[in-house]
Description:
- This protein is mainly alpha-helical and 273 residues long.
- It is built from 14 helices and two strands; from the N terminus they run H-H-H-H-H-E-E-H-H-H-H-H-H-H-H-H.
- The longest helix has 17 residues, at 25-41.
- The chain is elongated and about 60 Å long.
Amino acid sequence: MPLGRRHYHGGGRYPKNRTSLPTNRFQKDAYLRLLQQDVLHAELLVDDVVRWDVRECASNDKYFVFDDTLERILLPLIRDPYCCPYVRQAFRPLSGQDHSGATILEAYPPSGIVPHAGIADLCAPLCFVFTGLSEVYFVFRCFYCRYWLQLQTLASKGENIQTLCKLFERLVQAYNPEVAFHCVSVGLNPLEVVFPWIFTAFSGYLEVEQVLHLWDRILAYDSLWLLSVLAAAVFLWRGRSVLQAETPSDIRALFVDFSKLQVVPLLQYYLFA
């Protein structure tokens, strides 16, 4: 019986409280192997979404070497019932039945995490930091449950994709209303440019080292608001060029190359200036 279903039936090996979760490397390796067995045992419809997104991520020359690693992390993740309580705090997960139609599943997939475009990008930078597969898995799972899950959530309060976008718009209008007005006058909402940056926490856009600098500060501040601050900083960094642009495509072209962008100075300027 797959790990998720063992959890639902109450008789499996999945630990039911956090104090009994795997704490050392051997336990973590064993836990991940259980999830990998679930992957082999039964194919989920959403598995193809994961594989498609991994291929998209691997088309980036920074991450192509991790295509197999990403698949071996993300396929178990969507089967890990540990994530389900965190998903329930953010939104109501999908429900369904197992392949026999006899068992009602509280969440589908078992983790409650429905894979989406960009999920592989949210994992790939960690592959540069950790060598062991289980190390990457558990660090990414913590990141996803604590932070990245909020990027899939719509709500009027708290840190979520809606409020992050709203903060970006307010920052641009407050710091340089002329740039904001010019963008709208040529037919481009600035949020259309930066939304992918925020949605993927800048992974796939910034250089890997700069992504890790940003994520390090998200951990330090324990806040996703830095994504909005950096998005506004990057957009206004090109403010003079934006004012000279005459079409939406001209503005978009200004934000293709991020190779020389330094995260820390930009954040420091807008946070402490």
